[in-house]
Design a protein that fits this description.
Rossmann fold; UDP-galactose 4-epimerase, domain 1; 2 domains; four-stranded mixed beta sheet; 9 helices
């Protein structure tokens, strides 16, 4: 069970975000700066975690008392080559972090670490994933926790496990609301697998960043899911997105070539978020999707 070690919200001395150039990392940098934190954003230009000597480079950028957010990954992890690269990135980062007097390491992981289950998943659910993406994140969590316990015993370790993330800056075009938004804005039809009946939890990238900042302020230790507790079908998401547009878009159905992922249903219990951060409220799904849609539409309009 996660716990807040600070009784009240307290700004870290400095926040170092590794992976600051990415979709989630940049949102965390913005949220931390909005909170008044001193932030050092590190992207690939500052530290290439796949390069030789990356650990030495990272070590030279750190200061005692830093709170480090690690959100750098090649994702989604689709094959064994990407798996090895992600593990190497974590290993190189640990070469730089090991022995450093950090206040906290927050690893942005994924809900993919959990095995499928018939009911709502919680932070106590079994973490034995049967896919490479989940196995990669689970392995990294173990690596970070074990290394810190050995070389940085005073450093607090936490993992934030978001479910499917949506937002205006998403670069991946994965199946779901981010792809639907691109299709609708391009005037193209949305194609669903089957009838789009699988139901999943979706979280705004702004909420993920908001939780990360709160975990830094309260020096949270342990695992926390960034999951809203609300599930929606992919058809419902597609219909919502079409409703944001000013033109007629059709939904097409593609026959499935295999079983539905996660048996078509993957709910979560968000009680831990409410317990740890009672002032925090997740963005309502339709409102969040509409806001991202309007932000992108305005940007494309110039």
């Amino acid at each position: 069970m996660a716990e807040n070690l600070n009784d009240a919200a307290t700004a870290p001395e400095r926040v170092v975000v590794i992976g600051a150039g990415g979709f989630v990392g940049s949102a965390i940098v913005t949220a931390a700066r909005d909170r008044g934190f001193d932030v050092l954003p590190l992207g690939r230009g500052e530290v290439d975690l796949l390069a030789d000597g990356a650990g030495d480079t990272l070590r030279g950028l750190l200061k005692p008392g830093d709170a480090v957010v690690f959100v750098s990954a090649l994702a989604p992890c689709k094959d064994y080559v990407m798996f090895e690269q992600n593990i190497r990135m974590a290993k190189n980062a640990l070469d730089g972090l090991a022995g450093q007097p950090l206040s906290q390491l927050l690893y942005v992981s994924s809900d993919a670490v959990y095995s499928d289950f018939d009911g709502p998943l919680t932070e106590a659910s079994v973490t034995a994933p049967d896919n490479l993406h989940g196995q990669m994140h689970a392995a990294r969590e173990i690596m970070f926790a074990a290394a810190l316990a050995e070389s940085n015993p005073d450093t607090v370790f936490a993992s934030l496990r978001p479910t499917l993330i949506y937002g205006a800056g998403d670069p991946h075009n994965g199946y779901g609301p981010n792809r639907y938004r691109r299709l609708v804005l391009a005037g193209e039809n949305i194609v669903l697998f089957g009838n789009g009946e699988e139901r999943r939890d979706h979280v705004s990238v702004l909420d993920v960043a908001g939780l990360a900042v709160r975990m830094l302020e309260r020096r949270t230790r342990g695992a926390l899911n960034a999951t809203t507790g609300v599930v929606a079908s992919f058809r419902n998401l597609a219909e919502m997105t079409i409703g944001f547009a000013d033109q007629s878009i059709e939904i097409e159905n593609l026959s499935r070539s295999g079983p539905m992922p996660h048996n078509g249903y993957r709910p979560f219990d968000p009680s831990e978020v409410k317990r740890l951060f009672p002032d925090f409220a997740f963005t309502e799904l339709e409102a969040g999707l509409r806001a991202a849609f309007e932000e992108v539409r305005a940007a494309e309009a110039g």
